[in-house]
Structure formats: structure tokens, C-alpha cells
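Q: How would the C-alpha cells look for this protein?
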Amino acid sequence: MKKKGLLADILKLVLFIGIGLFFIYWSFHKMNPEDMQYFMDSFHDALWAPVALAMVVALLSHLVRALRWQLLFKPMGLKPSLLNTFGSVVVAYMANLAFPRLGEVVRCGTLRTSEKIPLEKSLGTVVTERVVDVFAFGLVVLLGLLLAFNTLKDWLYDALLTKVESLPSLAAVVGVAVVLAAIAFVLYRIFKKQLDEKPIVKKVKQLLLSFVDGLKSILHLGPVNTFLFIFYSILIYVLYILGGYIVFGAFVETRGLPFMAAFILYLFGSVGMAVSQGGIGAYPYLVQQSLNIYAIPDPVGLACGWMLWGSQQVVNVVVGMGFMIYFSIKKKKNPQPEQSSEQ
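A: Here is the predicted structure in C-alpha cell form.
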């Protein structure tokens, strides 16, 4: 089973890297020599101060994530230091570049090394974080789609101009969604017994129950810490979007874009981070597509995407390597005895 699991992980890694390489090929294959020169000139003429500021914002988002992570240890009576939780978070981002979801295990391991916190306890907090992040990301996507509906509709209309005559309004989309949800609910109630026996339905219900349990666990933090947890969760996504908005200042063509453009950029970019390993290739390409909505030339949009993605990864790798050295030194100075897991 372990060999099969390892093989599946390797195949996923190869697939995700392959998708990223395809997007890199596709992005540059479509460029003629003039576009390629425009792309290179965009990098050459870019202002680096906004990029540096965006890197600081990326680090700040990791810091806020570390502060939020600390809160989850309080009900257990554990108080890991901010330095060690922050370092573990950054190392996790670096590890995820090498292998999907490796960071979740790595950050728990580094916290065990530095704080003597048992793996099973830190892994439990990571599961809670993942549940909250899925929920929060869903809300961010929904909010983004609602706020940018007309902009996205106009862009989609232009893209499908030869295929459709009109696109539905927001009210029509919401209305259809409500009707379909109602029909699905009625059908489920009618065929509930038969459906409940299906393995896939059991798995979905189990996932939903674990999702609800994860959200409920936040309420055990107490009123103040629950408020802080929610505040930090919102702030993380604000900083993600703000980083993209700041990078707009690096290019002449993107300096006048509204904050909503950064919101849409984040939505598109998040898809890129999910479909390829570390977002390589896919993230810059989808950023380019998001900026197409605002009539930004493709070479500039692609340069902006690579600038934003590259600056984030430089932060993760450089700072992550620094903390890896720090944790290695700490481990040598303070070797972990087996009984340390009984804290």
C-alpha cells in the first residue's frame, strides 16, 4: 500500500509539473518576435520597489498565518513561539514547491523539533486550518464573483461573441442556481435511502461532517481568540490580494488598474496554483488572462504574472532555506528524546 501511495504521489507530481511546462510552452509559443521583445522590455523597465514591497507583504501574510496557527494550540495548553511557528510556515511553503502537500508534514516536524510539540497535536491544528481555508476561500471566490460579475460577464461575452447573443444577468444566474439546488434537495429527500448506501455519498457526508467539526473547533478558542482567528483569516486573503495590487505599480500599463483587478487576478491565480506544481507556468498564464479583462497587452500581463509568482517563490525559498538552517542548528543543540512526545 505504501508503494502504491508513493507511486500515486510521484505520478501526481509528474502530472502537475507537466501541466506547468505545458502552460509555459503555450504562453511563449503564441508570441511573435515583437511580443517577445515587449515581454522582455516589460521586465527591463519594471520598477523594483513595488515588487520588493509585495515581497514584504507576502512575508507579512505568512506572519499572520503563524499568528493564527498559534491560537489553535491554546486549548491544548501549548504556547509555541512566534519565531518558530513563523519559520515552520515559511518552510512549509518552500516544501510545497518540491512536492504536493509535503509542507503540512514538514511544518509539524519543524515545530516538534523547535517546540517539542507532538506531531499528532500539530497535525490536528493543520487539519482545522485546512478546513477553515477551504471555507474562507469559498467565501472569497463567491464575494469576488458577485462584486466582479458585470466585469467578468462583459469579458466572457466578448470571448463568446460569435457563439452567443447574450449572457444572463446576475439575478438570472442566482435564480437558476436556487432552482437547481431546490430540485437537487427534493430528489435527495425522495431517494435518500438508496443514495445513503452509495460509497461516494458516504464519503461526501463524512467530509462534510469533518468540515463542520473543524469549524466548530474554532469556537472552543473563546470569544476573543475566535474573533482574532476570524480576523487573521480575513487579513491573510486581504494581504494576498494586496500583493497583486502592489505589483501593478511595477508596470506602466497596469499602474492605473483598480483594486478589483487585483481581486480578479487573485481568483484566476488561485486556479493556477491548484492545477500545476507550485503554480509554475499556470499561475503567470492565468494572471495574463485576468489582466486581459482590463485590456492589458498579453506580454505585459505575462510579465506581471511571472513577476508576482517569482517574487513570492523567492521569498519562500530564501527565507525558507534560512529557517531550515535555523531548525537544523536548533535540532543539533537540542536533540529530541522520544519522551518529548508526551508533553
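Residues 337-343 have pLDDT under 50 and may be disordered.

The radius of gyration is 23 Å.

Upvote if useful.
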